[in-house]
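Hi V.,

Quick status before I head out on leave. The structure for the redesign project is tokenized and pasted below; the design run finished overnight.
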């Protein structure tokens, strides 16, 4: 009997194309997981509004993790109970792992004032700036702005961000880098959220095997929280050097093609 896989996946640059956000090349792999009754759980820097819209497009209705591990949303049909949830409605539980977005933004401003960090976060950017950087417009752009915990930002250099990392940590902020932006969030990462969901699944089925698929530095905690990690390539064919080879298997393709290769492999090999 095949182990029951629980697949955690990044979205942008992994399941979704980096430039077009198209899911077309991933649909066959998503369908395969659904047919095998293997949960597919988005773990993304996207907001809950963005992830809900994407899940409706591919007819998924399970749990998801938003804003780089800061929030977990769990439909009530997923588990018998989630006794430690922070919020409960008639349809779902929510778990808050991250600092409130306004507090995150205040810390960033104060860090910049103290260190000279030159940055622009979503709060400072105009719609046109965000659209230029992300390719999003209209309703999709507004959903991207609905941040609850995690502030994406651009900086003058990666080295400048590295220099302020210790000060940020002393304030409870985690600074990570995704495919397009640096991210600031408080008290959370993708790995913590993945571990919570994996433990919930293991309470209901003992033979769970967890898999994570991602493409960037902010996926490292997720890789470290699962049984098998897979790192897909960047658009130029390279792999993020911030991910140690011991943490994730290098996939010889990028984006949705790489995602599909991973799913086909694990469903075949078991």
């Amino acid at each position: 009997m095949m182990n029951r896989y629980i697949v955690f996946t990044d979205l942008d640059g992994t399941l979704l194309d980096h430039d077009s956000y198209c899911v077309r090349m991933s649909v066959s792999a998503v369908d395969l997981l659904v047919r095998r009754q293997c949960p597919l759980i988005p773990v993304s820097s996207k907001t809950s509004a963005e992830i809900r819209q994407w899940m409706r497009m591919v007819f998924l209705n399970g749990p998801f993790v938003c804003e780089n591990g800061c929030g977990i949303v769990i439909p009530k049909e997923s588990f018998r109970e989630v006794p430690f949830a922070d919020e409960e409605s008639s349809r779902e539980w929510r778990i808050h792992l991250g600092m409130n977005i306004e507090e995150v933004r205040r810390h960033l401003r104060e860090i910049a004032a103290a260190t000279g960090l030159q940055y622009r976060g979503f709060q400072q950017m105009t719609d046109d700036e965000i659209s230029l950087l992300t390719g999003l417009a209209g309703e999709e752009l507004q959903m991207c702005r609905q941040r609850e915990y995690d502030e994406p930002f651009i900086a003058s250099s990666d080295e400048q961000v590295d220099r302020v990392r210790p000060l940020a940590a002393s304030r409870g902020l985690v600074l990570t880098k995704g495919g397009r932006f640096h991210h600031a969030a408080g008290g959370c990462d993708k790995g913590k959220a993945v571990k919570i969901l994996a433990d919930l699944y293991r309470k209901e089925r003992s033979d769970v095997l967890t898999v994570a698929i991602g493409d960037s530095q902010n996926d490292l905690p997720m890789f470290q929280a699962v049984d098998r990690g897979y790192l897909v390539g960047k658009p130029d064919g390279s792999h993020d050097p911030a991910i140690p080879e011991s943490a994730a298997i290098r996939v010889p393709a990028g984006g949705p093609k790489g995602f599909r290769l991973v799913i086909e492999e694990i469903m075949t090999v078991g």
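Above is the designed sequence. The first strand starts at residue 4 and ends at 9.

G. will cover questions while I'm gone.

Best,
W.
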